[in-house]
Design goal:
- The complex is a heterodimer of chains A (221) and B (237).
- Chain A contains 9 helices and no strands.
- Chain A is mostly helical and 221 residues long.
- Chain A is elongated.
- Helix content of chain A is 83%, strand content 0%.
- Chain B has a single domain, classed as P-loop containing nucleotide triphosphate hydrolases (Rossmann fold), CATH 3.40.50.300.
- Helix content of chain B is 29%, strand content 24%.
- In chain B, the strands form 2 sheets. In chain B, strands 1, 2, 4, 9 and 10 form a 5-stranded mixed β-sheet that branches. Chain B has a 5-stranded parallel β-sheet with strand order 5-6-7-3-8, sandwiched between helices.
- The longest helix of chain B is centred in the last third of the chain and has 16 residues.
- In chain B, helix 3 packs parallel to helix 5 and helix 4 crosses helix 5.
- Chain B contains 6 helices and 10 strands; from the N terminus they run H-E-E-E-H-E-E-H-H-H-E-H-E-E-E-E.
- The chains are: A mainly alpha (221), B alpha/beta (237).
- The interface between A and B is medium-sized, with 26 and 31 residues.
């Protein structure tokens, strides 16, 4: 399983940089907002956490459709399904999700503080947004795996994955943004939405790979 | 008399590992492709499935590998013991696709499958040597020619131990010399007690293989008895 993790990370870094495209798209979304909203600095600061979260969410959906499709096209997926007695398919999917998070989503989390500066956010707001992204983005990878496995046989399934995944990712967005706001706005408590966000990630970590494994098992033809 | 004793020794060494397929039927997208396929495969035995395009050769192999559900009949894997409890877990599946990543080097690809499949046999370097590709380990897989890619895929069979090889057009794209080399590898695998089911329309050069002819658009009642390939497989134990 460690070998699979290493392979996935190598592929992510080497094969045309899934990581970099995500970050670039994230930058595009975040830097477009000030032009649309106008030069109201305090408004930008108030929008900041929400914009970071929306940007990260959209950028996170970008590479999802290739998560299993690439393995299906070159036959690796078949071998992973044949090997399901030694490596449970759920575990294989889980490892692929972890690798996808490390390669495609972790760079977004790392870039978020820099992009926060573009939104005129103060240090606490940036810290809170980054922390919630760190805890919330794994959920995107796990939900995304379920969406990607359903559309694995469709050659142009990219948009469909996003449409399938987005509704399930909305709770993550809601609690991520509300926790970020609570860290800055005094009376609101930070911990409850943050803990719900963490719970969502743990919940998706179980449900996502399970659903994806079942879908992949019956997508083989 | 001696033959019987020999056979008894073999059976005790390899358990009574056998693949029994009874009256198997397969379908693709709801359309029946073949039915009534029966055969029995024991250690040292090999089965070559021939037939025209669309006869269901690949479908049969995918059903055996557990990638497709069967439409009827029975597949029984017996006597695998603790090491090889299930059919899918005891099989190497070599399909049309090579299951290698063009962006990774040849050695990285093979090392991954070696670690993923476990039950190590040859090292990556030995396996590449065996298929005549020594010195290409550092090249990205995408740089190789079609035949070389196929040979890397064949080297995957060597890096982990599996008693049953399911081969789908294994020699597609290979030159004459590599074909002979691969035939030698298959003979060695059989001699060490392995089993092979190969779908092909090219002669594989496999000595002592039984043939299952799948004909036309629908095959009914294909039947092959592969009871003991030991009599013809060279080398024995």
């Amino acid at each position: 399983m460690l070998a699979l993790l290493v392979r996935e990370i190598r592929l992510g870094i080497r094969a045309g940089g899934g990581a970099l495209t995500g970050v670039l798209f994230f930058l595009a979304v975040v830097s477009a907002i000030p032009f649309a909203v106008g030069p109201d600095i305090s408004l930008l600061a108030r929008l900041g956490p929400a914009v970071l979260w929306i940007g990260a969410l959209l950028a996170g959906l970008l590479g999802l459709d290739r998560l299993f499709q690439a393995d299906r096209e070159d036959g690796s997926l078949d071998l992973m399904i044949v090997a399901r007695d030694t490596h449970l398919l759920v575990a294989t999917v889980f490892v692929k999700c972890v690798a996808h998070w490390l390669v495609a989503l972790l760079p977004l989390v790392v870039a978020a503080p820099v992009f926060g500066l573009l939104m005129n956010m103060d240090a606490v707001a940036i810290g809170a947004a980054t922390l919630t992204l760190l805890v919330g983005t794994p959920a995107l990878a796990f939900v995304g795996a379920a969406g990607a496995s359903v559309t694995v046989a469709l050659p142009r399934g990219g948009l469909l994955v996003s449409v399938l995944v987005l509704p399930i990712a909305i709770p993550v967005l809601i609690f991520g943004v509300s926790a970020s706001y609570a860290a800055v706005n005094e009376p609101d408590p930070f911990l409850p939405p943050f803990l719900i966000l963490a719970a969502l990630t743990l919940f998706m970590a179980v449900i996502g790979p399970l659903a994806a494994a079942v879908a992949l098992r019956y997508a083989a033809d | 008399m001696l033959r019987c004793e020999e056979a008894a020794i073999r059976l005790s060494m390899w358990g009574a590992m056998q693949l029994a397929v009874v009256d198997l039927a397969g379908e693709r997208g709801g359309e029946p492709v073949f039915s009534g396929i029966s055969f029995l495969l024991v250690p040292h035995g090999s089965l070559v499935i021939t037939g025209p395009n669309g006869a269901g050769k690949s479908t049969l192999l995918r059903v055996l590998a557990g990638l497709l559900p069967s439409a009827g009949g029975r597949i029984a894997w017996e006597g695998g013991g603790e090491d090889w409890p299930t059919l899918a877990g005891s099989a190497h599946y070599l399909g049309h696709l090579n299951a290698m990543k063009p962006a990774l080097t040849v050695a990285e690809n093979l090392a991954f499958w070696r670690a993923f499949h476990g039950s190590h046999r040859a090292s990556v370097i030995e396996a590449l040597d065996r298929v005549g590709l020594s010195g290409t380990g550092h090249l990205p897989f995408g740089y190789l020619s079609t035949g070389q890619k196929r040979r890397v895929s064949i080297a995957r069979l060597l890096v982990s131990r599996r008693p049953l090889w399911l081969l789908d057009e294994p020699t597609a794209g290979l030159d004459r010399a590599s074909e002979a080399q691969f035939a030698e590898m298959m003979d060695e695998h059989l001699a060490s007690g392995g089993m092979i089911v190969a779908a092909t329309h090219l002669p594989l050069g496999l000595s002592g293989a039984k043939t299952l002819e799948m004909g036309g658009r629908r095959t009914h009642g294909g039947h092959a008895e592969v009871l003991d390939g030991a009599a013809t497989a060279p080398g024995g134990l």
